[in-house]
Amino acid sequence: MPLPIVYSPDHVAPLPEGHRFPMAKFGKVYEWLVRDGVATLDQFQLSQPATVEQVTLAHDPAYVRAYLDGALDARAMRRIGFPWSERLARRTMSALGSTLVTVELALQHGLACSTAGGTHHAFREFGSGFCIFNDLAVAARWAQQRGLAHRVLIVDLDVHQGDGTASILHDDADLVTFSMHCDANFPFHKQQSDYDVSLPVGMDDDAYLAELAKWLPDLLTQVRPDLVLYDAGVDPHTDDALGKLALTDAGLLRRDRYVLEQCVRRGVPVATVIGGGYSKDIDALARRHTLVHRAANDVFKLA
After folding, report:
1. What is the pLDDT of residue 2?
2. pLDDT per position as a tens digit, 80-134
3. Counting Cβ atoms within 10 Å, is residue 119 exposed (0-12), middle (13-18) or buried (19+)?
4. Four-CA torsion 283, 288, 289, 295, nearest 10 degrees
């Protein structure tokens, strides 16, 4: 069987013209995976939307219901950064459902990738920073509740700290959060992950990868997870509008391959989500997001 990749056409929802969030990238990721020959059609698994019951494993039921009903007040929606729509609500549940399917497939096959996910700024009772529900926290709780994994390690390499994930999972010793992020970047009020690595502005490929190598092998040895959730955000890229680091495409590919190899060689199943990336050049951005799938194709042979 080839590497499983999870996709849904509902990963894209319309936003007002000129909105700064690059929503179109999610459809383009699928297109470029096929056009570049990174994936064949038989590799794609269609997801099902998450259920309210699944989402409330990590979120306050009143918040979940209010969002899905379009009943959040204007201030709460401004904090999220999106206007409400039925299509966006459906997109939110679809993307979260894709992360759950990716987890299932990773546990079955050793490695699986979503073409969405990484909404790590959503807190238990509110959304923030273009994140409505926290797919990483939900997936970790869901895998634990179903007895699929007792200990879960979240490796978050998005350029922004996974503050919502850290907050939601703070009191669960078996759901471990690791965030390596640019210090002088959103969120400016950081939460406390189990492990936080703050990086200086302008860090390049070699320095970044050396820092990651200081942490990840020991972390995997100490935590001994049954599952890794990997947020492969591409916003550490030097051209990213919201990044402030200086990684190249080659550096991101090396990063992704390193993370996946470290997990797979230890026999730890790993599920990947694409995380953040912000550029007006949607095609270049989408192809950058496919780097994790390219790395996963190479590493899948080891799984």
Report:
1. 93
2. 999 999 999 999 999 999 999 999 999 999 999 999 999 999 999 999 999 999 9
3. buried
4. 140
| Residue 196: strand pairing partners | 179
The values of phi and psi at residue 267, to 5°, are 75, 20
Say if residue 294's pLDDT is above 90: yes
User: What pTM, to 2 d.p., does this model score?
Assistant: 0.97
Sole residue written with tokens 């409330």 = 56
In 3D, which of 279, 286, 168, 156 has the Cα closest to residue 228? 156
The structure tokens 């700064």 sit at 20
pLDDT of residue 188: 87
Strand partners, 45: 6
Find tokens 């039921």 and name the residue.
61
Query: H helices within the chain, ranges in order?
Result: 25-35, 52-55, 61-68, 74-80, 86-109, 135-145, 163-168, 205-223, 249-265, 282-289, 291-299
**What are phi and psi for residue 246, nearest 5 degrees?**
-135, 40
Q: Distance between CA 273 and CA 211 in Å, rounded?
A: 22
